[in-house]
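Inverse folding, one chain.
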C-alpha cells in the first residue's frame, strides 16, 4: 500500500501500551477480507499515531507534543509573576506508607541561581529545571497532557 508518508509500524506497536491505545494498528502487510474493515483500522492507526507525537530528550525522558505545549502555555501565563525563576518539574514516587506505589509530577518555580545549569533541560520550546533524581525517575517514562492533567506512563 502506497502512502505519502512513512510510518514506523514497529515503533507504534512497541509504544502502543505507553500511549494507552486499545486497538492494535492495522498493518499494511496483513490480509483483511473486507476493505471497509481495512480502511477503518487504517483511520484509527493514522489518528492514534499522528495525535500523540512523541519526542525523546537526550536524558531519556519521553514527552508528547501536548505536554510540551502545556509547559509552554503555563510558562508564558506565569512568567511575569516569577522574574528570575525557572519552571521546575519534580517527579515523586512513594515507596512506603499509605501512598506506596503512587507517583506524581509537581510543577513549581525555582530561583535561577538555585538551579544548577547542568539540570536545565529544554522540553519543546520551554527551558525547565529537573533535578537529577527526578531525571532518573522519569527516564523511559512518557509525559503526556490530556483532559487538564499530566499523565506519567511507564
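Residues assigned per position:
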Amino acid at each position: 500500500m502506497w502512502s505519502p508518508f512513512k510510518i514506523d509500524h514497529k515503533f507504534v506497536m512497541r509504544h502502543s501500551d505507553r500511549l494507552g491505545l486499545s486497538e492494535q494498528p492495522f498493518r499494511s502487510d496483513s490480509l483483511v477480507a473486507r476493505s471497509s474493515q481495512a480502511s477503518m483500522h487504517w483511520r484509527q492507526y493514522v489518528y492514534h499515531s499522528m495525535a500523540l507525537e512523541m519526542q525523546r530528550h537526550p536524558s531519556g525522558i519521553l514527552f508528547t507534543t501536548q505536554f510540551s505545549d502545556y509547559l509552554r502555555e503555563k510558562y508564558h501565563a506565569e512568567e511575569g509573576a516569577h522574574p528570575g525563576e525557572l519552571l521546575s518539574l519534580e517527579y515523586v514516587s512513594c515507596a512506603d506508607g499509605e501512598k506506596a506505589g503512587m507517583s506524581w509530577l509537581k510543577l513549581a518555580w525555582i530561583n535561577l541561581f538555585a538551579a544548577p545549569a547542568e539540570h536545565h533541560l529544554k522540553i519543546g520550546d520551554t527551558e525547565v529545571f529537573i533535578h537529577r533524581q527526578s531525571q532518573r525517575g522519569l527516564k523511559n517514562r512518557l509525559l503526556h497532557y490530556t483532559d487538564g492533567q499530566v499523565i506519567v506512563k511507564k
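The two ends are 33 Å apart (CA to CA). Residues 59 and 135 are 7 Å apart (CA to CA).
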